[in-house]
């Protein structure tokens, strides 16, 4: 077990699942959190769950926010996106409409977050690929390339690629957090160096000023 002081340092990843109604967001969240597949479709409100996992030997907590894809919840979406740190953008491979919606979710994330965020494009219901597929993997790959993210096909039913998807997102978030910390440390070093140089300059200027006054007074004395 980790020593107690380490527990306090465990990183919490706030993952938001976005996508149209019926694509399987709740099913994905349930499968990841409790390894259970819900067959009934209950378009309920948003819910959040927590789970501790170990990814690449490091423990962390994943906080999953399962949003509601119904239109009446649109107003809440901005709030969910603000809360989130990493995103699963879900469509169903059996619904072209849900695939078309992906771009607008992504635009909304970019508008609110302003900077790049860890994001994975998820094509759910892969178990229905042979009978009901409406979106090809090639099309989804092309969209992922355009959105500068990874594409993964999942099935919350069988299940397939569920843990892998969350683990990949955690890795992306860890990488980004590390890069941001490095950037902040670099910026702090540059700032410290600049203020040191500024201080040096200020001293030099003060020293020059004082010296020039001293030289002037010597010159005056000489003349006198
Ligand atoms: N075959 C299959 N069915 C799935 C899969 N994932 C979800 N479903 C079914 O699709 C329906 C909708 O799933 P939900 O998880 O409730 O969809 P949702 O995205 O949460 O929908 P909203 O809460 O309305 O936004 C349910 O009947 C699920 O059983 C999957 O991977 N394969
Ligand atoms: Mg749901």
From TrEMBL:
Low complexity compositional bias, start-end: 185-197
Stated name of the protein: Uncharacterized protein
SMART domains reported in the protein's UniProt record: RAB (SM00175), RAN (SM00176), RAS (SM00173), RHO (SM00174)
Keyword line: GTP-binding, Nucleotide-binding
Chain segments carrying region Disordered: 177-208
InterPro entries per record: P-loop_NTPase, Small_GTP-bd, Small_GTPase, Small_GTPase_Ras-type
Keyword presence, Disulfide bond: no
Pfam families with a match to the protein in the record: Ras
NCBIfam families for this protein: small_GTP
Annotated signal peptide: none
Domain of life: Eukaryota
């Amino acid at each position: 077990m980790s020593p107690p002081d380490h527990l306090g340092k465990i990183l919490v990843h706030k993952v938001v699942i976005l996508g149209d109604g019926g694509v399987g967001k709740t099913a994905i969240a349930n499968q990841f959190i409790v390894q259970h597949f819900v067959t009934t479709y209950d378009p309920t409100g948003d819910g959040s769950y927590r789970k501790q996992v170990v990814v690449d030997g490091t423990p962390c907590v994943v906080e999953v926010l399962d949003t509601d894809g119904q239109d009446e919840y649109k107003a809440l979406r901005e709030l969910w996106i603000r809360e989130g740190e990493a995103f699963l953008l879900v469509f169903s491979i059996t619904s072209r409409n849900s695939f078309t919606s992906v771009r607008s979710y992504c635009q909304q994330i970019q508008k609110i977050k302003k900077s790049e965020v860890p994001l994975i494009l998820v094509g759910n219901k892969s178990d229905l690929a042979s009978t009901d597929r409406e979106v090809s993997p090639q099309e989804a790959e092309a969209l992922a390339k355009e959105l500068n993210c990874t594409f993964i096909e999942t099935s919350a039913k069988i299940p397939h690629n569920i843990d892998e998807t969350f683990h990949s997102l955690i890795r992306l978030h860890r990488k980004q957090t590390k890069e941001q910390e490095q950037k902040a440390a670099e910026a702090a070093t540059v700032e410290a160096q600049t203020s040191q140089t500024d201080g040096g300059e200020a001293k030099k200027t003060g020293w020059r000023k004082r010296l020039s006054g001293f030289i002037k007074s010597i010159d005056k004395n000489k003349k006198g």
